[in-house]
UniProtKB/TrEMBL annotation:
<feature type="domain" description="CBS">
    <location>
        <begin position="74"/>
        <end position="134"/>
    </location>
</feature>
<keyword id="KW-0677">Repeat</keyword>
<feature type="domain" description="CBS">
    <location>
        <begin position="9"/>
        <end position="67"/>
    </location>
</feature>
<keyword id="KW-0129">CBS domain</keyword>
<dbReference type="InterPro" id="IPR000644">
    <property type="entry name" value="CBS_dom"/>
</dbReference>
<dbReference type="Pfam" id="PF00571">
    <property type="entry name" value="CBS"/>
</dbReference>
<dbReference type="InterPro" id="IPR051462">
    <property type="entry name" value="CBS_domain-containing"/>
</dbReference>
<dbReference type="InterPro" id="IPR046342">
    <property type="entry name" value="CBS_dom_sf"/>
</dbReference>
<protein>
    <submittedName>
        <fullName>CBS domain-containing protein</fullName>
    </submittedName>
</protein>
Amino acid sequence: MTRQVRDVMSRGTVAVEPMTSVARAARLMRDENVGDVLVTYDSDLFGVLTDRDIVVRMIAENGDPDTTTAGSVCSRPPVVTLAPDDTTDHAAALMRRHAVRRLPVVEKGGCPVGIVSLGDLAAAEDPRSALADVSNARPNR
């Protein structure tokens, strides 16, 4: 059954400014148990920084996490986004088309209000699926 993105998205997004160090962003990811942070500037979405971005674009290139900025490593515009009233079917289609696992949810005007992940969609569709179980598992600590 199709739902609206607002019904399945995670509302507690973590955001940093583009000049935030990658080290600080990584600590936020760890502390908040998330795999990404939104990079915002004046409440507008600038980009998305994922744990994979940190590994592939910064660490693998011998970057220094204390001096490298989130804005220089994040996926930058055009970042694919959703509106809260978009359908979960539309979200899944965008993820498939753009080969991404997470999409920021933004209100009109570009203000981020949440994020929807592949795991969120799986849990909404079939709460007993393996992906839903993995997505809802306690963090490794």
